[in-house]
Design a protein that fits this description.
This protein is mainly alpha-helical. The chain has four domains: about 1-95 and about 270-275 and about 350-420, HUPs (Rossmann fold, 3-Layer(aba) Sandwich), CATH 3.40.50.620; about 105-270, Rossmann fold, CATH 3.40.50; about 280-345, 434 Repressor (Amino-terminal Domain); about 490-585, Arc Repressor Mutant, subunit A. Helix content is about 50%, strand content about 10%. The chain contains 24 helices and 13 strands. The protein has a three-stranded antiparallel beta sheet with strand order 5-6-9. Strands 1-2 form a two-stranded parallel ribbon. The chain has a two-stranded antiparallel sheet with strand order 3-4. It is elongated. Bound molecules: glutamic acid. Glutamic acid binds next to loops.
Length: about 575
């Protein structure tokens, strides 16, 4: 190790920009950073990159933190999150390297900007956006790549005091980094050394006209001051990294005078949809747009004007959306609600809202570009594991170079399996928590059930649910009041009224037996149904089960009747049968 590399403690960081929800790809980055820190006994930092003042929000920073906490990806250092349901706050600043919101670190950035300017490695530039636009257009017209041209009075290594004075007087300016004319090597643990030829970089902006540092600059300062040893991030960022390395070579710490260190990089594979397109936030807009266009083609009375009115948005915004000039998420969501279509889950909050379990997501994310390289007992690739396993086994050597495929069916099957592995009581607890957050009205109804009823219900729902949301439909019978549910006419006809009301007659007869069923448990109820069927010489209990099912739930499909009736309780079960008999005649 020389003094431009790190030694000792591993420090990784996840550095989201709080401009929206946590994207599932961001969660993968966070997971890998967390896992690598855990595996190496190091630290995992969360840093909020909020220098884009117009697009950043506190609400989104909080949402990102809550999603990470929900996934179980807890940071050792970073903003403190006291979250609902959390045992203890997450985050803190034990090494005193914060604050962790970049907008609170402006004084530091400015100090480093000035040091670079004084060392002749950066300079204020006064061209206006319009000046540059003219040059950009001229370059495009001449079929050349536009590059910022260094002003003649700027010399590498020479402090340009005139420019600095002019900037300090308040003339509008940006600060540019004086790009070196040398080969730059990005030490990448996944892709190998990535080399960039001399002259590839131009003098890029490090402080914007509004006084905020650019992403490139802030990231380099913070990674050094926070002692980050490994930068793991998605391959989208690879093109940025040479700039970062170039700045690291030019910067010295203002506290110790030591040169900046270059962390080890690991650029992780991109995440693709199964159709080969890159997974992106825009996928929601794409689906909504395609569905809307199809609907408009089918029904010519749907015009942008009429639709804008129905959807409650501005017509120009809608026209722009249809023409793919904008991908406004709000528009996409309104269209989806109106057309009753589902938009693809892209953000962690989408998966949460649809009832995925964090453990299944974490397991699935770990396999997006990594695998433990182990086999199961029957010789298959080991793919099912929990976060603790990842923390014990994660390594950089097994991160692949090839694009990762986001296989939604696989995630769904991971989730179904995770749900299947829960006990009924655990499923009930999680389902109730999920209802409280995402379906509060249903939660209020479900809260009327006793713990025992809820556990029986949970046992009946579990095999019918690949997600917590899936359990809503089979649970509906238990959450509706005894006279609230409606009878499905076809099911009534088929199971009660056809064949000269055969089903109805059996129902009425069986109703008489129910008084004696004791205790009112799924087993005792099932035994009574079986005994009745046998006595009547039915080939299977369906002959009485189906009429009962329709009477109790309104439909021909429901969980097992023992569970169904146990959840309802004896009094409700009898009331429901009576209502059915009264409604359709005995
Ligand atoms: N704020 C950047 C982003 O959200 C972080 C990139 C990085 O990890 O350096 O994309």
């Amino acid at each position: 190790m020389n003094d431009s590399t790190h030694s000792g403690l591993t420090v990784t960081r996840f550095a989201p920009s709080p401009t929206g929800h946590l994207h599932i790809g961001g969660a993968r980055t966070a997971l890998f950073c967390w896992a690598f820190a855990k595996r190496t006994g190091g630290k995992f930092i969360l840093r909020i990159e909020d220098t884009d003042l117009a697009r950043s929000s506190e609400e989104s920073a909080r949402g990102i933190m809550e999603d990470l906490a929900w996934l179980g990806i807890e940071w050792d250092e970073g903003p403190v999150l006291r979250h609902l349901g959390g045992q203890r706050p997450i985050g803190g600043d034990p090494r005193h390297v914060g604050p962790f919101f970049q907008a609170q670190r402006l004084a530091l950035y400015n100090q480093y900007i000035e040091s670079l300017v004084r060392a002749g490695r950066a300079y204020p530039a006064f061209e206006t956006g319009d000046d540059l636009e003219v040059k950009r257009k001229a370059a495009t017209a001449a079929k050349k790549t536009y590059r910022y041209e260094r002003p003649a009075d700027v010399q590498p290594g020479v402090f340009n005091e005139d420019r600095w004075q002019q900037a300090c007087r308040g003339d509008a300016h940006v600060v540019r980094f004086l790009a070196p004319h040398e080969q730059i090597v990005v030490p990448d643990q996944v892709l190998g050394d990535v080399k960039i030829a001399p002259g590839e970089l131009d003098d890029f902006v490090i402080r914007k006209a509004d006084g905020m540092p650019t992403y490139h600059f802030a990231v380099v300062i913070d990674d050094e001051l926070m002692g980050v040893t490994h930068v793991l991030r998605a391959q989208e960022h690879l093109a940025n990294t040479p700039r970062h390395v170039a700045m690291q070579k030019a910067l010295r710490r203002t506290d110790t005078g030591a040169p900046f260190r270059t962390p080890l990089y690991g650029h992780m594979p991109l995440i693709f949809n199964m159709d080969g397109s890159k997974m992106s936030k825009r996928d929601k807009a794409k689906i909504a747009r395609a569905s809307l266009k199809a609907a408009m083609q089918k029904d010519p009375s749907l015009t942008p004007a009429s639709l804008a009115m129905t959807l409650g948005i501005d017509e120009a915004a809608l026209t722009g959306f249809i023409a793919a000039d904008n991908d406004a998420l709000d528009t996409a969501e309104r269209i989806a609600r109106h057309l009753k279509i589902a938009l693809p889950e892209i953000e962690v909050s989408d998966f949460r809202g649809n009832g995925y379990l964090p453990g299944a997501i974490v397991n699935f994310l770990a396999l997006l570009g990594w695998n433990p390289g182990l086999k199961t007992q029957d010789g298959k690739d080991l793919e099912k594991f929990d976060a603790a396993f990842i923390a014990d086994h994660f390594d950089l050597a097994r991160i692949g170079k090839a694009n990762a495929k986001f296989d939604r069916n696989k995630l769904l099957s991971f989730n179904a399996e995770a749900i299947g592995a829960l006990t009924a009581a655990e499923f009930a607890r999680r389902w109730m928590e999920w209802l409280a957050e995402f379906e509060p009205e249903i939660h209020a109804k479900a809260s009327r059930l006793s713990a025992e009823q809820l556990t029986i219900l949970a046992g009946a729902l579990k095999p019918r649910a690949k997600t917590l949301r899936d359990a809503l439909r089979p649970a509906a019978f238990a959450l509706a009041g005894d006279d609230e549910y409606t009878f499905d006419a076809a099911a009534v006809e088929k199971n009660l009224l056809s064949a000269d009301r055969a089903g109805m007659k059996l129902l009425v007869e069986f109703r008489g037996r129910l008084d004696t069923v004791e205790p009112w448990t799924p087993e005792a109820i099932t035994a009574a149904i079986d005994a009745f069927a046998k006595e009547k010489g039915m080939p299977n209990p369906g002959g009485i089960a189906q009429p009962l099912r329709v009477a109790l739930t309104g439909a021909g499909v429901s969980p097992g009747l023992g569970e169904t009736m146990a959840v309802l309780g004896k009094a409700s079960s009898l009331r429901r049968i009576d209502r059915c008999v009264q409604t359709h005649g005995a």
